[in-house]
Structure formats: structure tokens, C-alpha cells
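ok new one. same drill as before - C-alpha cells go in, u give me an amino acid for every spot. 232 of them this time. try not to just spam alanines like last time pls lmao
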């Protein structure tokens, strides 16, 4: 059987973590990176060539793609850039590390990344182009909307809904039944005990609003335009 060929979008920290996991699983042949940082072009990142920018994606019609930026706004910008070059949604891969524990009845959308040590207990729904970093816990009936980001060690109680493009920092915990609005940022180590509106930044124990998250966190979500390069 021929191993499918994959190009990683972005050459930053998340992309390198995904590369290491893919090498261990040997589920894809890694062809290279595409990154809009011209200083990286024609260099090697962890032994893999950076072949050019995102606009070059159309030059690789036999490759699949995986958006490997650390924020949802960045990943949305990548997907939009490739769409303008004619790369359709079905060309995106999905990566669930074999070290993820996921029960029957859980679903993971196109383009999403789930890294090792993560647990999905029952009826968890993960949307498109979501990033779930190592050792997160998603309990029954949780929903992660498109482009959400959970960094290492996040723990969600049952029935939590994380809005599109929301970002939860390392070790954050969310009480059961809570909703987190689109584009909202939750600081690392925070305890979220109530619903959070969209487009804000919350932190602390219990979490309190610090400031408005700003348009830069939501501008690249579907239906808006933004450069992904500022959100790596």
C-alpha cells in the first residue's frame, strides 16, 4: 500500500510536535512544510524542507495538508489561503495520535489534530481544524467548535461547549455545562465556572474578565479576512 503524502502548513512549534508524532506513527510520508516566512524557505526544520509559502500549495496536487498553527485564527487563515489557490476542504488530513483514548460515539472533524495523552470519554464532538494538545480531558457531551484550541492539560467537565476559535491555556479547567464564546481566550491555570461571552480574555481562579480579546483573534475565522502569520 502506498503511504499518503502530507504537507504541513506552518513550521512552528505545533508543526514540529505533529511532525514528531507522525514520524512515530508512520501514517504519512512527510513531504515538507509550507510557511509564509521567506527566511525559512529552502531551509530544513527538524530535517524536513520548507518548500515555500502557502500560495505554493497548488503546486502539490497529490499531497494532503494539515494546518499546524497554534491558534484558531491562524489555522482559519491558512485554510482560507489554500481555498483561494483551489485547494478544497477534502484535501485536508486529520491526525489523531494513537496515544489518544477516544470511545465509540466521539467524532473528529476534518483537519483537526489531537495529540497524545488526550482522553475523549463519551459522545464528544470535535469540529474542523481544532487543535487539542497533549494530555487534555474531554468528558461526556463536550463540543469543540471549528478552529478551537485546547493547549496542554486542559480539562473540560461534561456538556461544555467551546466556541469557534476560542483558546484555552495550559491547565485550564471548565465546569460542567459552561459555554465559552467564539474567539475568547482563557488564561493558563484558570478555573472557568460560568458562561463566557465571545471575544474576551479571562483568567484566574475563579476566572475573571481581564480585557477584550481584540479583533485579531476572531478576524480570520470563517467569513473574515486576516493574515495567519501573526498568530503562530
Amino acid at each position: 500500500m502506498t503511504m499518503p503524502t502530507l504537507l504541513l502548513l506552518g513550521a512552528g512549534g505545533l508543526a514540529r510536535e505533529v511532525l514528531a508524532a507522525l514520524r512515530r506513527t508512520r501514517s504519512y510520508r512527510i513531504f515538507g512544510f509550507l510557511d509564509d516566512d521567506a527566511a525559512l524557505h529552502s531551509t530544513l526544520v527538524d530535517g524536513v524542507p520548507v518548500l515555500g509559502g502557502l500560495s505554493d500549495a497548488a503546486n502539490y496536487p497529490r499531497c494532503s495538508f494539515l494546518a499546524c498553527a497554534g491558534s484558531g485564527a491562524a489555522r482559519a487563515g491558512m485554510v482560507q489561503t489554500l481555498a483561494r489557490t483551489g485547494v478544497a476542504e477534502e484535501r485536508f488530513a486529520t491526525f489523531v495520535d494513537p496515544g489518544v483514548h477516544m470511545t465509540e460515539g466521539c467524532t473528529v472533524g476534518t483537519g483537526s489534530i489531537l495529540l497524545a495523552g488526550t482522553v475523549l470519554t463519551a459522545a464528544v464532538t470535535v469540529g474542523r481544524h481544532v487543535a487539542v494538545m497533549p494530555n487534555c480531558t474531554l468528558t461526556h457531551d463536550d463540543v469543540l467548535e471549528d478552529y478551537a484550541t485546547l493547549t496542554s492539560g486542559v480539562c473540560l467537565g461534561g456538556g461544555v461547549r467551546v466556541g469557534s476559535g476560542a483558546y484555552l491555556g495550559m491547565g485550564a479547567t471548565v465546569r460542567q455545562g459552561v459555554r465559552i464564546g467564539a474567539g475568547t481566550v482563557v488564561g493558563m491555570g484558570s478555573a472557568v465556572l460560568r458562561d463566557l461571552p465571545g471575544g474576551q480574555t479571562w483568567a484566574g481562579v475563579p476566572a475573571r474578565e481581564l480585557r477584550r480579546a481584540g479583533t485579531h483573534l476572531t478576524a480570520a475565522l470563517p467569513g473574515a479576512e486576516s493574515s495567519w502569520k501573526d498568530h503562530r
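The two ends are 35 Å apart (CA to CA). and btw The CA atoms of residues 66 and 214 lie 26 Å apart.
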